Amino acid sequence: MMAFGFPAMPAEWDDNQPIYKQLRNRVVAMILDGVIKDGDALPSVRSVAADYRLNPLTVLKSYQELVDDQLVEKRRGRGMFLTDGARKKLLKEERQRFLEDEWPRIRSMIERLGLDPDDLLKD
After folding, report:
1. Phi and psi of 85, rounded to 5°?
2. Helix/strand/coil (H, E, C) string of 43-56?
3. Which residues contact 71 (CB under 8 A, 6 or more apart)?
4. Is the C-alpha dihedral spanning 99, 103, 108, 110 positive or negative?
5. HSE-CB for 70 with a 13 A CA cutoff
6. This prediction's pTM
7. What is the DSSP letter of 38?
8. Where do the domains of the chain lie, and which CATH numbers do they carry?
9. How many helices (H) and strands (E) does the chain have?
10. What is the pLDDT of residues 21-77, one digit of tens each?
11. Interatomic CA distance for residues 102 and 55, integer angstroms
12. Which of 1, 16, 20, 43 could anchor a disulfide with 61, C-beta 3.0 to 4.6 Å?
């Protein structure tokens, strides 16, 4: 198992969304991108809080959401670890969210602008 930090994660935070949600979303993106793999340990709450100058309770709240979503499991005395199948579960959820929430708006915009879908797929 690999322990890691969040070196690629930007330190800037958006004022329009709670930081714990942004941190959670960044971890989710890293899971989807394969940076964090099933069974990997998440960095400790203290180290993330120190590295990004966050309140440890903010990091803990973010991690707790990942636990609640069954993407991360707590192992007493060892830390937090990505659950088996977390990426697969996230991909399924994200695809469904895209098809329900984003695709209808994108499709509508394509039609409104008179774009040819085949042209959009060309390099």
Report:
1. 85, 5
2. CCHHHHHHHCCCCH
3. 28, 31, 82, 83, 86, 89, 90
4. negative
5. 5
6. 0.77
7. T
8. 19-121 (1.10.10.10)
9. 6, 2
10. 999 999 999 999 999 999 999 999 999 999 888 999 999 999 999 999 999 999 998
11. 33
12. 20
Q: Residue written as tokens 């198992």?
A: 1
75-81's contacts with Cβ under 8 Å and 24+ in sequence apart are: 78/41, 79/41, 79/42, 79/44, 80/41, 80/42, 81/1, 81/39, 81/40, 81/41, 81/42
Res 7 pLDDT > 70: no
CA pair distance 26, 20, nearest whole angstrom: 10
The number of beta carbons lying within 10 Å of the beta carbon of residue 110 is 13
* Structure tokens, 86: 């977390």
Pair of tokens at residue 82 = 């990505």
Residue 123 is which amino acid?
D
Return phi, psi of residue 65, to 5°.
-60, -40
